[in-house]
Amino acid sequence: MRILSFLQENLRWIAGGFLLCLFSSFGQTFFIALSGGQIRAEYGLSNGEWGSLYMAATLASAVTLTQLGRIVDHVSIAVVAAIIIPALGLACFLMGVSQSVVLLGLAVYLLRLFGQGMMTHTSMTAMGRWYSGNRGTAVSLAALGHQTGEALLPLAMVSLFAVMGWREAWYLAAAILVVLALPLVFSLLRVERMPKTTDRAEVRRASRDWTRREVMADPLFWTLLLGVLAPAFIGTTIFFHQAYLVELRGWPLETFAASFTVMALMTILFALVCGQLIDRFGAIRILPFFLLPLGLSCFLLATVPSSSAIVIFMGLMGISYGFSTTLFGALWPELYGTAHLGAVRSVAISLMVFSSAAGPGITGLLIDAGVSYLAQIFAMGIWCLAASAIMLFVARRLASRAAGPIEPETAGTA
Predict the structure, then answer these.
(1) What distance, in Å, lies between the first and last C-alpha atoms of the chain?
(2) Which of 7, 96, 294, 402 could form a disulfide with 171, with the two C-beta atoms 3.0–4.6 Å apart?
(3) Residue 184 burial (C-beta neighbours within 10 Å; 0-12, 13-18, 19+)
(4) Buried b / exposed e along 229-249 (16+ C-beta atoms within 10 A)
(5) Taking the model in full, what pTM does it have?
């Protein structure tokens, strides 16, 4: 009932953030990969060449995001949305019209920059800035747009391939962004959220607003990344090499693919659970625990040969994904304030994009060098456990450093 009441009072802003996350799907790996077979066939690319182009475009987008991401600190969220949604639409159009590898690379770069990068970054920055006492709830609800896209768009895209062709499907995606998403999101977010004097919420906030330069000089920020980067690296790596994994294990690929539903459901459930926990205890206290299910899932995947392990693996992965989805939206404003939140988040999300791009490439090279893929997955589990222990130390340091006391403050429905 608390979430329903919160939604009733904040529907337009939460809906705007949700739609930004939903339409970011057009630049996410799961969506772009649906056209991978057709792209390789038409451009004459091998798996390695297509993967290298994709990695290069993703890394370039991560570098650009560190600079472009600052815009949300200086321009209203509605205006930023009015810029990045048509830009993402242009990227979709280029995917359809491209006839050269160079233009294809540019299209993928723009998809990654404005889709996975700026759409998500803008949504999470808005939720982190506009809410404080209920920041966890706001972030968790907006982030559900990602899971909604993962659940609905792949089947729709594949169906469009059969009806109109893969290039025409990308044209349709561009039209949806410009004709539907742009006016809808802009109309929802054009009214900035303002605090209400009728509400008093307990606010967790940094004792001051850090600049990006100060954050970059903070040793605890870089230590935090040992944990923050793990889900992007591990998840992208395992799913990118899923065909090789099921071949090693002798599992039906259909069983592995069908189990994504389990992961999506667990992600949604625990994203909401994490939102409530953050509102009650703060994001810092969640840090030592969010990687434990992911670590267990890696150990399970590496050691259990039965196909029945797939469902448990996906469930555990969904728990960590749900926690991290909400945690990363609420953590940075709690630690470093909101005045320079866009600049700070742009660094963190750029490094996460870099991690997601580097994971498949590094593991692929190790596989080619004869290093067991299952042993690599087991090592990823060790990484999660070690990072969890380090996060316990970091959480204690952060809690005693600059966070300051939790105090009542006149706020909006935050």
Answers:
(1) 16
(2) 96
(3) middle
(4) bbbbbbbbbbbbbeeebbeeb
(5) 0.77
Backbone φ/ψ region at 112: left (φ over 0), alpha (ψ -120 to 50), beta: alpha
Sign of CA dihedral 149, 150, 152, 154: positive
At a CB cut-off of 8 Å and minimum separation 6, what does 141 contact? 3, 7, 14, 17, 18, 272, 275
Q: Which helix (H) or strand (E) element contains residue 410?
A: strand 407-411
Q: What is the pLDDT of residue 205?
A: 54
- Contact between 294 and 384 under an 8 Å Cβ cutoff? The reply is yes
For residues 403 and 313, what is the distance between their CA atoms, to the nearest angstrom?
A: 35
Strands (E), 193-264: 199-203
Tell me: the pLDDT tens digits for 376-388?
999 999 999 999 9
Q: Which two tokens stand for residue 349?
A: 């999300």
Whole-number Å distance between alpha carbons of 94 and 168: 11
In our burial notation (b when 16+ CB lie closer than 10 A, e otherwise), range 300-328 reads: bbbeeeeeebbebbbbbbbbbbbbbbbbb
Rounded CA separation 47/329 (Å): 34
Buried b (16+ CB within 10 A) or exposed e, 357-389: bbbbbebbeeeeeeeebeebbbebbebbbebbe
Domains defined for the chain, CATH in brackets: 1-190 (1.20.1250.20), 203-403 (1.20.1250.20)
- Residue 126 CA to residue 338 CA, distance in Å, equals 10
Residue 412's SS3 state is coil
